[in-house]
Specification:
It is a single chain. The chain is an alpha+beta fold. 47% of the residues lie in helices and 17% in strands. The protein contains twelve helices and six strands. A hairpin with a 5-residue loop joins strand 5 and strand 6. The protein is globular and about 50 Å long.
Length: 229
């Protein structure tokens, strides 16, 4: 399977979507197990050109089109999970536990709680809004990044489009920044309910088997580091 993908480079968004759906999941760039990633499937000169062949916007387009989730999902780095595989990852990662249960078990930091609580009153928040509302200063930048990574790796929040800053007159300005919502908001009832009937251990075995099918030389320790459980 890998050779079939590596023989040609992806230049169309539709081909990228098809590849993610076919594989089930994919990282954005190089990773610890050599798993297929978007960077390797495209040419360096394609990136940041603002042309239709530029892969950079694809990462947002694919989740906006609800073809796959995009977030920090693999080895604390960005990646994609198709709708077919999303309930499996959700079952394997969260094992049916809510944020409160994960936090009570000591698996999430206070900084993560500080951020997650914002989504009780807001459906979708941009990165700049999260920092402002939760009081993360520049000095706490590393704490913010770590907490955001925690929440994404545990599949509690996920990327949900982009948002621009707004002035007092209600006018937008500046560059758009990545926006986030809870997984429940982005995924919807069907995907969430689909994960409930999946045994976590079965989901984990299926995910690992898929990785070994594509990267047979990957070691068990690195595989677990890559998938986060």
């Amino acid at each position: 399977m890998p050779n079939n993908y590596m023989n040609t480079k992806i230049t169309e968004y539709s081909d990228f979507v098809s590849t993610v759906e076919d594989l089930g999941f994919m990282s954005l760039s190089n990773n610890c197990i050599g798993f297929i990633n978007l960077s390797d499937l495209t040419r360096p000169e394609q990136w940041h050109t603002d042309l239709p062949s530029d892969p950079w916007p694809w990462r947002i387009n694919i989740e906006r089109d609800h073809k796959a989730a995009y977030a920090k999902l693999f080895g604390k780095k960005p990646g994609f999970i198709s709708l077919e595989w999303y309930p499996k990852f959700l079952a394997a990662r969260r094992k049916g536990r809510s944020f409160s249960e994960l936090y009570s078990d000591g698996l999430l930091s206070n900084h993560a709680k500080r951020i997650y609580s914002l989504f009780e009153d807001h459906e979708c928040l941009a990165a700049h809004e999260i920092k402002s509302l939760s009081g993360f200063t520049k000095e706490l930048g590393s704490k913010y990044e770590s907490a955001m990574c925690e929440l994404q790796m545990w599949m509690l929040i996920t990327v949900n489009g982009t948002k621009r800053k707004m002035n007092s007159k209600g006018e937008t300005y500046g560059w758009a920044s990545t926006a986030y919502s809870t997984v429940e908001t982005w995924a919807g009832d069907e995907l969430i309910e689909g994960s409930i009937g999946i045994k976590p251990e079965d989901a984990m075995e299926e995910i690992i088997a898929r990785i070994k099918e594509i990267t047979p030389c990957a070691g068990a320790k690195k595989i677990r580091s890559f998938i986060g459980f």
